[in-house]
Amino acid sequence: MVYTLMILFLVSSTALSEPARCRYGVVDAWFSFNGSTWFNTTVDYAPLRRGQPFYIKIELYTLEDDIWVALKFSEVGEDSSTNSTFKLVEGPDAFYRVFDLGRIPSKYSLFNYTWMFKVKEDTSWVNGNAPLDVLVQFDKKIGGKWDTSRIHFTVVNTFILDENWSNEGNKYDDSTSTPSVSPLLVLILLYLVSLLRRLYL
Prior knowledge:
Elements: H1 2-12, E1 20-21, E2 25-32, E3 39-40, E4 43-50, E5 53-62, E6 67-75, E7 86-90, E8 99-104, E9 110-119, E10 128-142, E11 145-164, H2 183-200
Parallel strand pairs: 4-11
Antiparallel strand pairs: 1-2, 2-3, 2-5, 5-9, 6-8, 6-10, 7-9, 10-11
Helix pairs in contact: 1-2
């Protein structure tokens, strides 16, 4: 019952917002449980288990010519990947390391990247939140000096359950006494809420 209520709270608290903007660029982000169905972030209180994978997609473009761009992921409250609840599995090395996109010569050039993370199997942080943030920095050289503009926000605020993930059929492990909910049901509910909010906003 507790787990079911947590899923329903996740659905009700999915934020639908415009892409983040700064002086030199625009950044949008999506979260996915399975890498195929995506939800615009920030997603709040997404329940994950030890060893469970999840996916983050970032899309960005610059608003002026000749902008240098770099980005980095980090977990709120942790200072290194060693201490983090998460592990980067696939995608550009941007977890606690600066991923340098370099100079983007033309404005409105679109860049899209996808990362696969997972909750560490041996994480000791359970029954609590573990927010994953992204920081994107845009730099432009003006009169021989660098002018910097940043975008920083939480992509997903996960809730780490004190349970182990089973990847058989990409379903939640129901070996514990806590009732489990299929990720497919979660995704369907999120999609329906998204449609309703878009209709009434």
